[in-house]
């Protein structure tokens, strides 16, 4: 017997929500693979999970009890979560995702953008929309960092910058790298 409407029961939340939000990905690891592959900046993906952990009796408590714990799982480690369905079977719930990028060569990071799951308020498609808006923002930032720092020798000459001492922005009219910059 519950004394409140079932939609307010936290136990009603499950990872099927994410299976619906991302119909092309059957698992967190697959979603990460897609995010990494389909962004120019090779974005990373982290997920915040929550689950109940049984705390065994010790000097402070006589009986075992269940404690809600929360942790972030990052990129390649997402593989250990299995599929969305595995997570439901294990009683582990994803409560938020986070995307960001580390720009190659300069180790500058974009902002990490957290996308909180609001299962009670949003349809899966809405979560999907917010997720991809966040990912586009990460791409935009990563591109901005890249074009501030990856100018080639000709770009640098155009701006009067000595590449031995500093990095050059990419010159949008550069005839050599054609505004693609160079790998640093
Ligand atoms: Zn150039």
Give the key terms.
2 domains; alpha+beta; two-stranded antiparallel ribbon; 184 residues; 6 strands; four-stranded antiparallel β-sheet; binds zinc ion
The number of distinct helices, counting runs of at least 4 residues, comes to 5
- Unreliable sequence segments: none
- What small molecules accompany the polymer chains? zinc ion
Q: Largest sheet, if any?
A: 4 strands, antiparallel
The Cα radius of gyration reads 22 Å
- Per DSSP E runs of 2 or more residues, the count of β-strands stands at 6
User: Percent of residues in helical segments?
Assistant: 25-40%
* Series of H and E elements: HHEEHEEEEHH
Overall pLDDT metric: 92
Q: Which outline best applies? A: elongated
**Spatial order of strands in the largest sheet:** 2-1-3-6
Structural class: alpha+beta
N-to-C terminal Cα separation, in Å? 63 Å
What share of residues are in beta strands? 15-25%
């Amino acid at each position: 017997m519950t004394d409140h409407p079932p939609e307010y029961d936290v136990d009603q939340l499950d990872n099927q929500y994410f299976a619906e939000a991302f119909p092309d990905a059957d698992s967190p690891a697959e979603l990460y693979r897609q995010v990494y592959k389909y962004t120019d900046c090779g974005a990373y993906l982290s997920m915040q999970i929550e689950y109940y952990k049984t705390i065994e009796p010790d000097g402070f408590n006589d009986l075992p009890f269940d404690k809600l714990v929360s942790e972030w799982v990052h990129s390649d480690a997402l593989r250990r979560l299995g599929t969305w369905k595995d997570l439901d079977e294990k009683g582990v719930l994803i409560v938020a995702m986070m995307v960001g990028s580390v720009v190659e060569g300069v180790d500058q990071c974009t902002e990490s953008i957290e996308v909180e799951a609001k299962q009670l308020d949003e349809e899966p498609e809405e979560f999907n929309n917010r997720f991809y808006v966040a990912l586009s923002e990460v791409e935009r930032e990563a591109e901005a960092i890249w074009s501030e720092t990856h100018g080639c020798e000709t770009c640098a000459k155009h701006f009067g910058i000595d590449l031995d001492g500093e990095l050059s922005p990419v010159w949008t009219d550069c005839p050599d790298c054609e505004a693609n910059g160079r790998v640093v």
